[in-house]
Design goal:
It is a single chain. This protein is α/β, with parallel strands linked by helices. The chain folds into two domains: about 140 residues, Rossmann fold (3-Layer(aba) Sandwich); about 170 residues, Dihydrodipicolinate Reductase, domain 2 (2-Layer Sandwich), CATH 3.30.360. Helices cover about 35% and strands about 25% of the residues. The protein has nine helices and 15 strands. Strands 14-13-12-11-7-10-9-8-15 form a nine-stranded mixed beta sheet. It has a six-stranded parallel beta sheet with strand order 3-2-1-4-5-6, with helices on both faces. Strand 5, helix 4 and strand 6 form a beta-alpha-beta unit. Helix 6 packs across helix 9. The longest helix is centred in the C-terminal third of the chain and has 20 residues. The chain starts with a strand and ends with a strand. Pfam families: GFO_IDH_MocA, GFO_IDH_MocA_C3. InterPro entries: Gfo/Idh/MocA-like_OxRdtase_N (IPR000683), Gfo/Idh/MocA_Oxidoreductases (IPR051450), GFO_IDH_MocA-like_dom (IPR055170), NAD(P)-bd_dom_sf (IPR036291).
Amino acid sequence: MAATLRYGVIGIGSMGRHHVRNIRETPGIDLVAVADPGGDRFDVAGDLEVLSDVETLIDAGIDAAVVAVPTVYHERTALALAEAGVHCLVEKPLAGDVESGQRIVDAFDRAGLIGAVGYVERCNPALLDMRRRIADGQLGQVYQIVTRRQSPFPARISDVGVVKDLATHDVDLTAWVAGSSYARVSAETAYRSGRDNEDMVSVTATLADGQLVSNLVNWLTPFKERTTIVTGEKGALVADTLMGDLTFYRNGSIPVEWSTVANFRGVSEGEVTRYELAKREPLRVEHEQFRDAILGTRSEHVSMREGLEALRVVEAILSSASTGTTVNL
């Protein structure tokens, strides 16, 4: 493999254009081809010809590709890249359903290629530091994880609902931060905007290690919120991933002498610390991880198998909402 990896991007729309920019700015990789049957509506191709499909992208002689086409086309595109021996970063979710995702995973396993999924939240500085602190025991035993992901409707979405487009982020980051998997889920969805797919979801879940989980997601809120709260025996860590901020609320150590308050609170309020973090663009970190996985220098990327597990949980959420039952995983 060449010292500088040759990259292609298929799908240069709302998300793909950001991949194009970050690839061009990441050392060790060279953008040599882009493809999009819809053309270059964001004018990001520069001197590159906008190719028509994945086959012409492969013909450009690429080592790796980013797949940022609509979810319904993920399987066909990824399988073509696997057959051609091209490493692949697929935007989340991995596929439209578990069966399709499994075929993608199997193809990349057989080919011995790096297959990654674009769960960019894992590269957010606040969540990276949160996960490290939890692993180091700062919270002690973790009791509960709460995520809130709310915003207006993104016009770019047409083929999936809020569960597969947004809640999939929360499913992945919850399991990753906790170092545990979803054991059972119960969910409710709502259709409030007249579109075919759900636009609100409320998930209550339990992880395999016993942590309680709440994932609240919608795209009908007139403001944007991206918050993850992890509560444990020693306090709580709160990540604002919009700003990349992480705050620690420590349980108090000073005895509460006001008995009524002490009985009500259970724990007292201690010091509050907002950490100073190096804030790098998460998508840049994601591309560095993918590059390094291809080169064999580290393996911090989100694997396709992890993407498949998130898809299993997402489908369990939709099943629970449609049947009104709790789904065991």
